[in-house]
Design goal:
Structural class: mainly alpha
Order of helices and strands: HHHHHHHHHHEHHEEHHHHHHHHEH
Strand order of the largest sheet: 1-4
Oligomer: single chain
Shape: globular
Largest sheet: 2 strands, antiparallel
CATH topology: Growth Hormone, Chain: A
CATH superfamily: MFS general substrate transporter like domains
């Protein structure tokens, strides 16, 4: 949407009113509405219909598209590394840290998810305040340090030479901190350029996680077999560092993007909008995302071990391993390499991430999200449990990959749908999305750990993790359905009342609104 240009008198008046409450500023001055990354997904219509005559649908120049590449690389090295972890977990169990409880391996990957999610609300608020480059530089340093340190904390990388505590610290915690700086930044910077095609642009950014889940396992596993764990990890760390460094220079927001910096950071209300938890659809959606993370990544983290244990997949023989460390029984002739299954699942999820953004514009994000989550739960409960041949296993990873891409990519769009098209409500989208992710962080940490322990407790029976993941996804779909129900019952005056309540307590955290171009001039 484009707003008419303000006369000079109005601009002067706006400068004088910066100390007023945040709510009053955002409601009465629509020119300074925050152009949030997923605002266009809050309604089921073509956003291009709202543009001015003659205004291009796609931005002109090279900077928007280099920023799009930068956002892709940030997602590539944030959630993409989470999607890759299943390959590392399989190697740890096979060679580096054998005879350990699978729960411990899952804890490393779930720690990555936890750190990324728990910091989303804080990172999102700093992005709103204009600290984009600082966050990307910090994330690059942390991810690089964590990745390279992983290659030197396990001795010579030989059989049973792994150090679990240091692996958790470097790969799980330190790298997780860096990935947290990238996760929200990736879509935030891109959205400032693509005014009328936000959905598709953010879908392209989200596909970075899927492509990373394809590229990194295909790169890491053969290198581990040929050169050993330490050398392979250094190669992967080099690719990660170089791609992150590129993003520092090209992932830059539009100069016209408005940044919103509070007058005082030391206030709880800067980061948390307590009124959000009085909104019934949002509360139900938060519950849905909690159940989602409770069971979702148990599939990714345990897929390779499931394939190896059932004989549908096989692992490469690694020099120095015991002869029988890979396989406990005869492997069928049509068995597939286990890391291929994870790579296929990640590759097909690209289709789900991009196509779901298109469907949201026509059917509503929350409606699409509920349907794809329900289908994903059925795929786990029915197709995965009945996969007894390699062909059936491949069919499962392809179909689940497609729907899982939509399931994990749609939570921000679902928040936008709940908020509705009202600009007053949409100005809270980044904050509410961050709070939703932070709320689910504990479930992302504990879910895969519980699933891994269930497998160990029941003698390596992966039916337990299949039921766990499927049930959690089903409950997530039920909660999304409840959110849809309450969304339709919500009174239309909710945001007028909400704005009046917020205005009375917003003075102490009133933001200073200015364009990024003005901010850069001040810095110079």
């Amino acid at each position: 949407m484009s707003f008419p240009t303000q006369p000079d008198s109005e601009k002067t008046s706006l400068e004088q009113s910066r100390t007023n409450s945040w709510t009053e500023s955002t409601v009465s001055r629509p020119t300074f509405q925050r152009r949030d990354s997923l605002a266009s997904l809050s309604v089921a219509r073509d956003a291009s219909q709202q543009r001015n005559a003659g205004e291009p649908i796609w931005p002109k120049g090279w900077r928007p598209y280099t920023c799009l590449l930068g956002g892709f690389l940030l997602m590539f090295n944030s959630w993409g590394l989470v999607n890759t972890y299943g390959t590392y977990a399989s190697y740890y169990k096979q060679h580096l840290l054998p005879n350990r409880d699978l729960m411990l391996f899952n804890l490393i990957g779930s720690t990555q998810s936890f750190v990324v999610l728990i910091l989303s609300a804080v990172i999102g608020r700093f992005l709103d305040a204009g600290y984009v480059r600082e966050l990307i530089i910090l994330g690059t340093l942390l991810v690089s340090i964590g990745s390279f340190m992983l290659s030197i904390v396990n001795g010579d990388g030989g059989y049973n030479h792994g150090n679990y505590g240091l692996v958790w610290l470097t790969q799980g915690f330190v790298s997780g901190l860096g990935m947290a700086c990238f996760f929200v930044s990736s879509s935030q910077v891109v959205a400032t350029w693509f005014k009328y095609r936000k959905g598709l642009a953010i879908g392209i950014v989200a596909s970075g996680a899927s492509i990373a889940g394809l590229v990194y396992p295909m790169m890491a596993k053969p290198l581990m077999v040929t050169f050993g764990f330490n050398v392979a990890t250094r190669y992967v760390a080099t690719v990660t560092t170089v791609t992150c460094a590129i993003a520092i220079f090209i992932a830059r927001p539009s100069p016209s993007h408005i940044i919103r910096e509070p007058e005082r950071w030391a206030d709880f209300r800067v980061f948390v909008d307590t009124q959000a938890f009085k909104n019934a659809p949002f509360v139900w959606l938060c519950a849905a995302i909690c159940f989602l993370f409770f069971g979702f990544y148990a599939v990714f983290f345990n897929l390779e071990e499931w394939a190896a244990s059932t004989g549908l997949g096989y692992k490469d023989n690694i020099p120095g391993s015991l002869d029988d460390v890979d396989l406990n029984h005869e492997v069928p002739k049509d068995a597939i390499r286990t890391f291929y299954l994870l790579s296929i699942m990640n590759a097909t999820s690209t289709l789900g991430r991009v196509s779901s953004a298109y469907l949201c514009d026509h059917f509503g994000a929350l409606n699409v999200h509920a349907v794809v989550t329900f289908v994903a739960s059925l795929l786990v409960l029915l197709l995965w449990t009945m996969a007894k041949t390699t062909s059936a296993a491949i069919a499962f990873v392809v179909l689940f990959g497609i729907f899982s891409g939509a399931v994990i990519g749609l939570p921000p769009a679902s928040v936008a749908y709940i908020l509705g098209p009202d600009p007053t409500a949409q100005s809270r989208l980044g904050q509410w999305t961050g709070m939703m992710y932070s709320t689910s962080a504990v479930f992302a940490l504990t879910g895969p750990v519980i699933a891994g322990h269930l497998i160990t407790q029941f003698g390596g029976n992966y039916f337990t993790v299949q039921c766990w993941s499927g049930a959690c996804l089903f409950l997530s779909a039920v909660c999304m359905s409840m959110a849809i129900l309450f969304k339709h019952k919500k009174p239309s005056k909710q945001w007028q009342d909400h704005g009046q309540r917020s205005a009375s307590c917003a003075t102490s955290t009133a933001p200073v609104l200015r364009s990024r171009a003005d901010s850069e001039k001040e810095d110079v």
